[in-house]
Amino acid sequence: MSNNDFAARLADVGADVEATLDRLLGPLALSGEAARPARLLAAMRYVALDGGKRVRPFLFIEAARLFGCDGDGLLRAACAVEMVHCYSLAHDDLPAMDDDDLRRGKPSAHKAFDEATAILAGDALLTYAFDVMADAATHADPHIRCDLTLGLARASGLGGMAGGQQLDLDAERANTPLSHAEITQLQAMKTGALLRFAAEGGAMFANASNVDRVALGDYGRALGAAFQIADDILDAEGNEAAMGKRVAKDAGRNKGTLVGMLGLEAARALRDELAEEAVNALARFGEKAEVLVAAARFTASRAS
Amino acid sequence: MSNNDFAARLADVGADVEATLDRLLGPLALSGEAARPARLLAAMRYVALDGGKRVRPFLFIEAARLFGCDGDGLLRAACAVEMVHCYSLAHDDLPAMDDDDLRRGKPSAHKAFDEATAILAGDALLTYAFDVMADAATHADPHIRCDLTLGLARASGLGGMAGGQQLDLDAERANTPLSHAEITQLQAMKTGALLRFAAEGGAMFANASNVDRVALGDYGRALGAAFQIADDILDAEGNEAAMGKRVAKDAGRNKGTLVGMLGLEAARALRDELAEEAVNALARFGEKAEVLVAAARFTASRAS
């Protein structure tokens, strides 16, 4: 698959994801007779819409497509994963956390609204992700909905994303450098767990065999690690325009990254090695996996 | 059922809930091979353990017991509801929200730890609630696990608790008094939705008929409304020791309450009327419902 074909596919899926998020967060889509607090819904939309390349839902959807799955339920499930990602950005940007005033080149949620609304928008988006995942409209089989809900929760909580963010904050405060193993662990939790779940969850959605599901999980784990190193390389290279946020901030605040520890050259080599590890995990699927193979190579190449 | 018998039952269930939360938040109980960020787990335990009368899990458990249900899965599901309540307290107390330094007579989470950890502990506790609810250890039937997950999410999100908190913050800022209907709506979302789900969820857990489930939902709705008015009466009466937090603060910050609008006497009458409405919703269950009847009367009487 050429780079252009991959970019077009990524953009296509991204547009579907955007439209589905827009619908899920539309004024009539939310159930119940309760009043809709307009400001909170606006903040949830601000946090969830018009954002990023939608890598997590892309992985979820393409992993399910590998097994012939497609359709609206798949888009809903993929959007649930993206909602968790978006909530985490809104909370990570808060003054008490990473204190970032910019996100994707726009004011962060607590700047566009206010701190309380940004906290609540994150809370409500996280909550809504589980609402969407557990809903019969997402998948006909309640076993699969439960497995997906459980997997999403585990990737996002104490043993996953939230735990990784805490380890990051702890490290920043302790002011002692992390070891290579500690950085790897932190990143596997903070960003890796949800990326891994995105790929594995797509296989779960498609009711893939255990072996296939494990293969997608291995792919997602390696891709997630490559993705984080690529992000750290971008940050170190200081391309402010491409990142849409203040640059070299993480390094300046003593946040351990593998780039800081290994240097740019070795970090690039590790990133490429992990991307190939991701590709190798897909060997059993042959040609069918070309989109996911391209996704792994794209992850590595975006930081050139 | 005598007041003493009811108090003993409430304490018994509370002790079971405490033990189950302690186990669910134990160092070995969380799945996966990931590192456990010790500070985050400590903060989650601080937020969830040793708290309150456990009214929500009590309602959940006693509603299920009405249909002959009991056991560890029931305790797990009830604890998931309580986790959502506890997370909301930790976030509501944050400086950007209600800015409360005390909770149940102890430092609030952001005072005992720090703001970032309090935000993350709330996030992780909310996430873990859905983990517990969707887990096969909680209920054998995945349809019921999905229904409970969905119900919990809807009671807690934009159309429920989080939305109600936003309406409360909006009202505080707007500095224009809310109407009776607006206060009722706000409270039905902010505290009512989760109390209602607690009672209705117990019936869902027990796979009760739709009619029985609706009756428990009506009970929970009326009890929730009575509970909030009783809380506002306690606040207005200024019994600092009984509340464990600064008193008359809500009123001082222009937060609309029915006590402020109607006066103490009329508020007491409305509270008692709602408690009787809750009792009446249980008529179809006869003697079997004596514990839930006592719970409705207790809710009214605690504010004397």
Describe this structure as you would to a colleague.
2 copies of one chain form a homodimer. With 304 residues, the first copy, chain A, is mostly helical. Chain A has one domain (3-301): Farnesyl Diphosphate Synthase (Orthogonal Bundle), CATH 1.10.600.10. The first copy, chain A, is built from 15 helices and 2 strands. The first copy, chain A, has helices at 3-24, 38-48, 55-65, 72-92, 109-112, 115-134, 142-156, 161-174, 180-205, 210-237, 240-243, 249-252, 258-262, 264-281, 290-301, and strands at residues 102-103, 106-107. Chain A has a two-stranded antiparallel ribbon. Mean pLDDT of chain A is 91; it is low at 250-254. The interface between A and B is large, with 60 and 60 residues.
Question: What keyword list fits this structure?
Answer:
homodimer, 304 residues, mainly alpha, Farnesyl Diphosphate Synthase, 71% helix, globular
What does this entry show, briefly?
2 copies of one chain form a homodimer. The first copy, chain A, is an all-alpha fold and 304 residues long.
Question: What does the secondary structure layout of this molecule look like, with pairings?
Answer:
Two copies of one chain form a homodimer.
Chain A: H1 3-24, H2 38-48, H3 55-65, H4 72-92, E1 102-103, E2 106-107, H5 109-112, H6 115-134, H7 142-156, H8 161-174, H9 180-205, H10 210-237, H11 240-243, H12 249-252, H13 258-262, H14 264-281, H15 290-301
Query: Topology as H/E string of chain A?
Result: HHHHEEHHHHHHHHHHH
Shape of chain A, please? globular
| End-to-end separation of chain A | 18 Å
Judged by helices, strands and strand pairing, the structural class of chain A is mainly alpha
Number of strands of chain A: 2
Q: Mind describing the biggest β-sheet of chain A?
A: 2 strands, antiparallel
Radius of gyration of chain A: 18 Å
**Oligomer state of the chains in this structure:** homodimer
Sheet-strand content of chain A, in percent, reads: under 5%
Low-confidence parts of chain A: 250-254
Largest interface, chains and sizes: A-B, 60 and 60 residues
CATH superfamily of chain A: Farnesyl Diphosphate Synthase
Domain unit count of chain A: 1
